[in-house]
Amino acid sequence: MNITAYVVLSGILFTIGCVGVLTRRNAIVVFMCVELMLNASNLALVAFAKQHGNLDGQIAAFFVMVVAAAEVVVGLAIIMTIFRTRRSASVDDASLLKY
Amino acid sequence: MIAFWILAPIMVIAALGILFVRKAVHAALLLAVVMISLAVLYAGLDAPFLFAVQIIVYTGAILMLFLFVLMLVGVDASDSVVETIRGQRVMAMLGGLGLGLVLVIGLGQITLGTAVGLDAANEGGNIQALANILFSRYVFGFEVTSALLITAAVGAMVLAHRERLTPKATQQAQAAKRVQDYAEKGTHLGPLPSPGVYARHNAVDTPALLPDGTAAPSSVSKVLTARGVVRSAPALAEDIEPFNRQVGGAAHAGGRDAATPASTTEPAPATGEDDQ
């Protein structure tokens, strides 16, 4: 069995996540796109673990999941705090430091 | 491999949907489709432990957290279509297209040969094999992970916690404030008017009518107004017009004519003025 198709799918999903981060304005949707990118990289890691016949790739994917969980918790808390003070979840509205 | 060819198009379509749907809740549901499909792919790639973790941690915990925050942030937090940087959307699309082409063509051209397969590595079971590596070679990373998780938990608590700076208003203080508002600004003392209760229609999305026939915006929930689903009350009585004319309801007609222009579904900016 060949894992090239898995890696190509992972690349496509990563690209879609990337475009989502660049184009969407809602902070929560931007965050979901970051999650999509992390998931895409996980798929590549698991596929390469199968290719090379050892489990290091699966361990790496597991660590990525742990880091993603921690990141989501803190990130959503930040979004909540920003929404509480500015009544908006748009990434364009939090631009006070620009000036 | 059959599962892959079935799930891959579904995943790509769902992921593309995240880019184009307007509501964040729909994006979260599409992300759930992608994540569950990924879990099935992990099962096909000899990773039963990651299959379970993907469903429990990602779909179960992380996506639920997303939906929680979406509910807290509210229904009207939809995406704005205004571009703050001109041409940014087009540039992002072009850049993404370029990246996608480079990745797909580049990855499609490499030859990896046949996979070694995990049958030897998963000899005594996938979970046992993973635990052997995790608690020997990667034990330091595992310990660091625990520090990271504790830091994240404390950070989330600090960020989400709000210190109460003023004492909580008691019922007595609220009543006194109401009476004071009535004395100073003339705000109505009693409760807000209830939404439309009519002979043939009774629903919370229909505003009550004031004696002069205009709609009372304070009688419908602000959430419904934000969603734009408030109905017009006089329109519900359109078909009784002929009967009204037959019985000669001339006295009634004046009130209904005055009501018709006020039957807008838009929220009035000054909600408090209506219930004076």
TrEMBL record, chain A:
<keyword id="KW-1003">Cell membrane</keyword>
<feature type="transmembrane region" description="Helical">
    <location>
        <begin position="29"/>
        <end position="49"/>
    </location>
</feature>
<keyword id="KW-0472">Membrane</keyword>
<comment type="function">
    <text>NDH-1 shuttles electrons from NADH, via FMN and iron-sulfur (Fe-S) centers, to quinones in the respiratory chain. The immediate electron acceptor for the enzyme in this species is believed to be a menaquinone. Couples the redox reaction to proton translocation (for every two electrons transferred, four hydrogen ions are translocated across the cytoplasmic membrane), and thus conserves the redox energy in a proton gradient.</text>
</comment>
<protein>
    <recommendedName>
        <fullName>NADH-quinone oxidoreductase subunit K</fullName>
        <ecNumber>7.1.1.-</ecNumber>
    </recommendedName>
</protein>
<keyword id="KW-0812">Transmembrane</keyword>
<feature type="transmembrane region" description="Helical">
    <location>
        <begin position="6"/>
        <end position="22"/>
    </location>
</feature>
<dbReference type="Pfam" id="PF00420">
    <property type="entry name" value="Oxidored_q2"/>
</dbReference>
<dbReference type="InterPro" id="IPR039428">
    <property type="entry name" value="NUOK/Mnh_C1-like"/>
</dbReference>
<keyword id="KW-0874">Quinone</keyword>
<comment type="subunit">
    <text>NDH-1 is composed of 14 different subunits. Subunits NuoA, H, J, K, L, M, N constitute the membrane sector of the complex.</text>
</comment>
<keyword id="KW-0813">Transport</keyword>
<comment type="similarity">
    <text>Belongs to the complex I subunit 4L family.</text>
</comment>
<keyword id="KW-0520">NAD</keyword>
<feature type="transmembrane region" description="Helical">
    <location>
        <begin position="61"/>
        <end position="83"/>
    </location>
</feature>
<dbReference type="GO" id="GO:0050136">
    <property type="term" value="F:NADH dehydrogenase (quinone) (non-electrogenic) activity"/>
</dbReference>
<keyword id="KW-1133">Transmembrane helix</keyword>
<keyword id="KW-0560">Oxidoreductase</keyword>
<keyword id="KW-1278">Translocase</keyword>
<dbReference type="InterPro" id="IPR001133">
    <property type="entry name" value="NADH_UbQ_OxRdtase_chain4L/K"/>
</dbReference>
